[in-house]
Amino acid sequence: MKKLSDATIVGQQGINLIERITLEMGFAWNPTNIDVGIDGYIETRDGATGHATNCIIQVQSRATEGQFECETDDSFEYRCAAKDLDYWMGGNAPVILVRSRPKTGEAYWVSVKDYFRELGIRKNAKIAFNKVRNRFDQSAKDTLFRLATPLDSGQYLGTKPRAENIYSNLLKLAPLPRHYYVAQTQYRTPPEIFARLREITTAVRGEWLLTNKTMISFHDLRDHPWTAVSEVGTCEEFDTGEWSSTNDAARQRLFVQLLNICLKEKLFPKGIKFSRDHEFYYFRATKDLSDREYSYQSRENRTTRVVFKGYPKKSDHTKMSFYRHSAMEVHFVRYGGEWYLQLTPNYHFTRDGERTSLYAPNLVSGIKRLENNQAVHGQVVMWASVLTERNLFEGGSRFIDFTTMNTFQLEVGIDDRSWLGREEAEKRSALADEGQGTLL
After folding, report:
1. Cis peptide before 225 (omega within 30 of 0)
2. Cα–Cα distance, 286 to 386 (Å, whole number)
3. What would the pLDDT profile of 102-150 be if each residue is shown by its tens digit?
4. What is the DSSP letter of 338?
5. 3-state DSSP call for residue 347?
6. What is the rounded CA–CA span in Å between residue 372 and residue 430?
7. Mind listing the domains of the chain with CATH numbers?
8. In the list 168, 177, 398, 415, which could disulfide-bond 406, CB 3.0-4.6 Å?
9. pLDDT digit string (tens) for 360-373?
10. Whole-number Å distance between alpha carbons of 374 and 410
11. DSSP label at 358?
């Protein structure tokens, strides 16, 4: 059942008290209805003529049922939140804070900008109310009239405070195996090692790298089948944490190289291939070249995106013009001692599901021009889901995994709807496809 709290009732009683006193002064009261730091506006009026002045004072109400802070017979205190104080001090319209106790009809006020004019007082963020000088009643009428915005200045109310969540394209790397292994080998090239391993087992794993006849891997090279391709007596065990935190550029390149190899092993069973020519990952074509969909959890609900799709020729719908594959570029980066995968959505266009389309550069640049921030964000979320989902039956790399996408919260933000124009009908149509936010 819906619940109306006592605090909400007291808060409204405080606003009602301010309205009653304001009207008794002969001024107009205009509630904001939506409290973002200001509860309403007082518009002053010329008592002699009855003419409204179009001069305003912004009002923030703080009401309580009990004792005020540090209350005595003559005074009390109130400490302002830094976020509220920053907002009240913005703009060029005066702001008053009214502290009240509705059940006794008491109300007291201060002009916030005047009170916190000195930096030292503002830093303390504490207001000392005098119960005589700061009484909010008929005696404050003339002072409020003088405080109101001068006629020769424009009214600027300041921006409404708005927190905003920032979604990055960084996926934090989950903890890696505690150790990695290094061993000498007589083989000079990776194909030679793969060929030898296939003679021994059908479950050939690729989470290793070869440099100067030295194998480096998260696999224990002292175990089968690695003993067939490495010299067991030369195998050494090292701490992965020390390697991942190194500042030596050459060692760091090897570390990133091994991470990339493990990533390929993780994604291949998911139907995602790495293109050496373009240096990005992309969803492979289906065997019959039919559309392929990927289902995942977006920020709000479960949704589906078409990650492989064919487009027929306009002149002959029985023939395909090209196929579009969802793709991503990735880079392993280290920030603040932590490793992340930085992913950037992209597209791959082929003529038959395998060979790159001759028109791929034009098709990619065309779709990039159509993309907006929401579309790119949707793809980042989709790829993050691909990288973080766990399926015991896919058989991907067991050495590399990722946590959730990094997000940040800013104390300030922008309401995009207030300044972004509506997309042209043609552009919105081009951006629409099967699934939520899928691009053509």
Report:
1. yes
2. 17
3. 999 999 999 999 999 888 888 889 999 999 999 999 999 999 999 986 6
4. E
5. strand
6. 12
7. 6-161 (3.40.1350.10), 169-431 (no CATH)
8. 168
9. 999 999 888 888 88
10. 19
11. T
Report if pTM > 0.70.
Answer: no
**262 three-state secondary structure:** helix
299 HSE (CA, 13 A, CB side):
13
Contact (Cβ atoms closer than 8 angstroms) between residue 268 and residue 205: no
DSSP-derived secondary structure letter, 117: -
What whole-number distance in Å separates Cα of residue 281 and Cα of residue 275? 6
Q: Are 22 and 140 in contact (CB under 8 A)?
A: no
Phi, psi of 432 (to 5 degrees): -80, 135
**What single DSSP character describes residue 157?**
-
In whole angstroms, what is the distance from residue 16 CA to residue 432 CA? 49
CB-based contact 133:109 (threshold 8 Å): no
8 A C-beta contact, residue 273 and residue 284: yes
Bridge-partner residues for 183, per DSSP?
215
Q: For 255-289, what is each residue's pLDDT tens digit?
A: 999 999 999 999 999 999 999 999 999 999 999 99
Least confident of 15-24, 337-346, 412-421: 412-421
